C-alpha cells in the first residue's frame, strides 16, 4: 500500500491531538471490531470552531485523516465545517489507497458527531443540521 507524503507526515506528526476538558461538543465514531475509533472534541465561540482536538485508535490512515480534518476546520464557522466532505479530506492528503477511503468517512462523521453533540447540548435537534450519522460500513477487509 502506497501512502502520499502528506499522509505519512500527518501520521508521523499528527496535528491537534488530545482532549479538550470542557469541550462544547464531543463526537465518537467507529467500531472496535474493525479497529478504527475516532473521538473529536470542539470548543465553539460565537459559531466559530475555536479549538478542535482528536484521539484516534486505528491505522495510520485513520490518524492522518483525523489530523487533516481538524486542520481543515479549525477557525472555521460551524456552517463551513459541515461542508467538509470525506472527498475533501482525501484530496487534502493527496489521496488514499482504496482500502483506506473509509477512514476519511470516519473523519467526516466524527466531526459531524461532535457538532451534533454541540447542538444537542444547546437544546437544538442536530439531525436537520448535521444529518444522520451512519455506522461505519467500510471495515470489510480493512485490516
Walkthrough of the structure:
- The protein has 143 residues and is an alpha+beta fold.
- It has one domain (5-127): Sufe protein. Chain: A (Alpha-Beta Complex).
- It has six helices and three strands.
- It has helices at 5-12, 60-73, 78-82, 86-92, 101-121, 127-130, and strands at 25-31, 36-45, 48-57.
- Strands 1-2-3 form a three-stranded antiparallel β-sheet.
- A hairpin with a 4-residue loop joins strand 1 and strand 2 (36-45).
- Mean pLDDT is 91; it is low at 139-143.
Q: Tags for this entry?
A:
single chain, 6 helices, Sufe protein. Chain: A, 143 residues, alpha+beta
Write the layout of secondary structure elements.
Elements lengths: L4 H8 L12 E7 L4 E10 L2 E10 L2 H14 L4 H5 L3 H7 L8 H21 L5 H4 L13
Antiparallel strand pairs: 1-2, 2-3
Described by the principal axes of the CA atoms, the overall outline is globular
CATH topology: Sufe protein. Chain: A
Tell me the count of domains: 1
SSE run: HEEEHHHHH
The low-confidence parts are 139-143
**What's the CATH class, please?**
Alpha Beta
If strands are numbered along the chain, what order do they take across the biggest sheet? 1-2-3
Share in β-strands: 15-25%
- Share of helical residues: 40-55%
User: How much is the radius of gyration in Å?
Assistant: 14 Å
| Structural class designation | alpha+beta
Terminus-to-terminus distance? 12 Å
- Count of DSSP helices? 6
Amino acid at each position: 500500500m502506497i501512502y502520499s507524503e502528506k499522509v505519512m507526515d500527518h501520521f508521523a506528526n499528527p496535528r491537534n491531538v488530545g482532549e479538550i476538558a470542557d469541550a462544547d461538543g464531543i463526537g465518537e465514531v467507529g467500531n472496535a471490531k474493525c479497529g478504527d475509533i475516532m473521538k473529536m472534541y470542539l470548543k465553539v465561540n460565537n459559531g466559530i470552531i475555536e479549538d478542535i482536538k482528536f484521539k484516534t485508535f486505528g491505522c495510520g490512515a485513520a490518524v492522518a485523516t483525523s489530523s487533516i480534518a481538524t486542520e481543515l476546520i479549525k477557525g472555521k464557522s460551524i456552517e463551513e465545517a459541515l461542508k467538509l466532505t470525506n472527498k475533501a479530506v482525501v484530496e487534502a492528503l493527496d489521496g488514499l489507497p482504496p482500502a483506506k477511503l473509509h477512514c476519511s468517512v470516519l473523519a467526516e462523521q466524527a466531526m459531524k458527531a461532535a457538532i451534533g453533540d454541540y447542538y444537542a447540548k444547546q437544546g437544538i435537534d442536530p439531525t436537520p443540521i448535521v444529518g444522520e450519522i451512519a455506522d461505519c460500513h467500510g471495515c470489510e477487509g480493512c485490516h
